[in-house]
Specification:
Layout lengths: L18 E9 L2 E12 L2 E7 L2 H19 L11 H14 L5 H11 L9 H14 L4 H17 L10 H10 L10 H18 L24 H6 L9 H13 L6 H9 L10 H7 L1 H4 E2 L4 E4 L10 E4 L2 H9 L10 H12 L5 H14 L2 H8 L3 H7 L6 H7 L2 E4 L4 E4 L13
Antiparallel strand pairs: 1-2, 2-3, 4-5, 5-6, 7-8
Helix pairs in contact: 4-5, 9-18, 10-13, 10-15, 15-16, 15-18
Length: about 425
């Protein structure tokens, strides 16, 4: 029995093409002429009519290419690209794979690319930025803080060029921030860094011939939102105040500490409500012009705009007990030598939180005088802030005790005065 040899071959798909032919027809008694393109799709005939032959031939060529593409992995495309450009495009698609589309890659490149003559690294860019702030009269402490924050960001980005900075880099940096203990940074810290970085890039994108700006044409902070005030407040510690007995003990200690050198500083902080920062804070600035701004005869301390943190001038009415402390230690300076170390020592000894002296003044002032408006004027706060945080923290008796603490020079101790602190007849609105 003979054997038959069977050869398997790949069957080529039947060639499809579009046929073009003229057609005359009559419709409603009117003679018409057109060119018809006819082809077969999924077993059914399709057709399309054209008035001009050139239009029909153009359509035919496009359909013929489409049919060839369906039957071949390498597609035929009507394109203006040269062979070299086509090869580069194919290589680009291979390199991108499924990670990014060609459109996304091109958009990213055009967004971050900048001619070499305009490029500048982050450190140099930040230097120009801070120079401008100094010329604008920004406080030294603020510039020092901003410099530290932006330097940390520059180091994280390996001091790359400004225009090369991307949103993912900034997001990664902000997410890497930690506290001194190594735990994730609080939302307020996140916002502070984000806002300073955003301010720098906003400035860098502005046109300025003296610095060859803009240095970039995109906003790298796009999509990186700051935490809301509500979310920040969730991590904020409760406002701390010092109870009157502890304040009395603290001032007794101050009277014996290095011959009373820190008494006036803490008296202005606790009983004057001035912001206590030893780094160009309100008390430090006041001390430089004490003879001009403090008038114990009239019982008034004037704080001009260049002294206050808010840049709004305000006037402090000196309470009777603050007057007693200032007069008892009149011959001593407000800000003595080695102020920062001594201030730190006293805060640590009595466990005082940041701004606890000021918070105490505000809360006891509200308790004693029952006037948010008066307290707001004295402290330089808004009434809404006082109503929200300080309104019912302490009783009137506690307020009276706080503002009755005076020095007993003979005993060398702070005491509660037998004369009650005067109350003013204001109503809470």
């Amino acid at each position: 029995m003979s054997k038959k040899r069977v050869t398997l071959t790949e069957k080529s798909p039947k060639k499809q093409e579009v046929k073009v032919y003229p057609r005359n027809y009559t419709k409603r008694g009117v003679d018409y002429f057109c060119w018809v393109c006819r082809w077969k799709k999924e077993g059914k005939w399709k057709s399309k009519e054209f008035k001009e032959r050139d239009d029909a031939e153009t359509f035919k060529r496009g359909m013929d290419v489409s049919f060839l593409n369906q039957a071949s992995k390498q597609q035929l495309v009507l394109s203006t690209l040269t062979k070299e450009q086509t090869r580069e495009s194919e290589q680009a698609f291979d390199d991108l794979g499924n990670t990014y589309s060609m459109a996304e890659a091109i958009a990213f490149f055009l967004k971050h690319h900048r001619a070499t003559g305009y490029e500048i690294n982050l450190t140099d860019g930040v230097g120009y930025y801070l120079d401008g702030k100094e010329r604008d009269g920004v406080r030294d402490t603020t510039i020092k803080r901003v410099r530290s924050m932006l330097k940390r960001f520059c180091d994280y980005c390996d001091n790359q060029s400004v225009n090369a900075t991307t949103s993912p880099q900034i997001q990664s940096f902000l997410s890497s921030l930690t506290s001194a203990e190594g735990s994730p940074a609080k939302r307020k810290t996140f916002n502070n860094y984000r806002n300073e970085i955003a301010s720098f890039f906003k400035w860098a994108a502005k046109k300025d011939l003296s610095t060859n700006r803009p240095w970039l044409f995109h906003d790298p902070l796009e999509g990186i939102d700051a935490h809301s005030n509500k979310r920040v407040a969730e991590e904020r510690p409760e406002i701390a105040t010092t109870d009157p007995d502890t304040v009395r003990e603290l001032f007794t200690y101050l009277m014996s500490y290095k011959e009373g050198k820190m008494v006036k500083y803490f008296a202005l902080a606790y009983f004057g409500g001035m912001r206590p920062s030893t780094d160009q804070g309100e008390i430090v600035k006041l001390a430089v012009r004490a003879d001009e701004l403090i008038n114990l005869t009239t019982g008034v301390i004037n704080l001009p705009a260049d002294v206050t943190k808010t840049k709004d001038r305000r006037q402090i009415h000196v309470s009777d007990n603050l007057m007693a402390w200032m007069m008892a230690y009149d011959d001593l300076p407000i800000c003595p030598a080695n102020l920062k170390n001594d201030y730190r020592h006293i805060r640590e000894k009595f466990g005082l939180q940041n701004d606890e002296t000021r918070h105490s003044f505000i809360s006891y002032h509200v308790a004693l005088h029952r006037s948010m408006g008066e307290t707001a004027l004295q402290a330089g706060n808004s009434e809404s802030m006082i109503k929200k945080h300080y309104l019912r923290m302490h009783t009137a008796d506690e307020g009276s005790a706080f503002f009755s603490i005076v020095p007993d020079m003979a005993a060398g101790a702070a005491v509660f005065s037998e004369i009650e602190a005067p109350t003013q007849k204001f109503k809470i609105v």
